[in-house]
């Protein structure tokens, strides 16, 4: 089975920035080159270790995504992007292009939507897909042929999230994970969940009723303070579920077979 590898660029960019923050690498001009170095090293390591047949790198576009239109508070809790990262991104893109790896970016949609679309295309085409993403929403893509590599506390600790791994950690299937996240909320994205409801109770309800729609249908049957909190926050939970659903049918203008990569442009890389 051929292998497709998809990378959420900013998952790597932020991880390498903070991994080196204590002792950042700098060039002669004083520019922080930690991100560019780490990103390049990761791509080379992936090619040597995983030997993907197809490889693509997806970036979040400027201006945010359609999710802000649905929910204006989406990711509003995040600090301004550090200047060193903003300066690094154009060089990262040039490195990727010089390595002859496709760069993918769609205005109004997040990198995970691009990845979701490509992973679905790869699944239909019979590829084994590995997704590098720092967003747990990507867990909804997981199946027997799609694995998410999720960075742990230490960057080298890439957790291989398979259907069994999701079931073991959250006690729901990957397809049910967005329902769990809608109930629990997502602090990193500034999405409020049902007060007092964490992964455990969310999974309990999902397993008892079958999914979010059924939980809402039976909300009046759920007793106690958590049941009351659920009923008071049903509209927010519905909104959460629409926000955390990844788009899987974007018109990317490319097919999955276009994600080929060839010999690097040595001259361009030398210049960089």
Q: Averaged pLDDT, please? A: 93
- Output the structural class: alpha/beta
Question: Strand order within the widest sheet?
Answer: 3-2-1-4-5-6
Span between termini: 35 Å
> What's the total count of β strands?
8
Strand fraction band?
5-15%
Brief summary of the model shown:
This protein is an alpha/beta fold.
Tags for this model:
globular; alpha/beta; 6-stranded mixed β-sheet; 272 residues; 44% helix
Structure write-up:
This protein has 272 residues and is of the alpha/beta class. It has helices at residues 9-19, 34-50, 67-70, 83-98, 111-124, 163-170, 177-184, 199-209, 212-217, 224-232, 234-244, 266-271; strands at residues 3-8, 54-58, 103-104, 128-132, 146-151, 158-161, 185-186, 191-192. The strands form two sheets. Strands 3-2-1-4-5-6 form a six-stranded mixed sheet. A hairpin with a 6-residue loop joins strand 5 and strand 6. Helix 1 (9-19) packs across helix 2, helix 2 (34-50) packs parallel to helix 4 and helix 7 (177-184) packs across helix 11. The mean pLDDT is 93.
Give the SSE map.
Layout (H helix, E strand, L loop, with lengths): L2 E6 H11 L14 H17 L3 E5 L8 H4 L12 H16 L4 E2 L6 H14 L3 E5 L13 E6 L6 E4 L1 H8 L6 H8 E2 L4 E2 L6 H11 L2 H6 L6 H9 L1 H11 L21 H6 L1
Parallel strand pairs: 1-2, 1-4, 2-3, 4-5
Antiparallel strand pairs: 5-6, 7-8
Helix pairs in contact: 1-2, 2-4, 7-8, 7-11
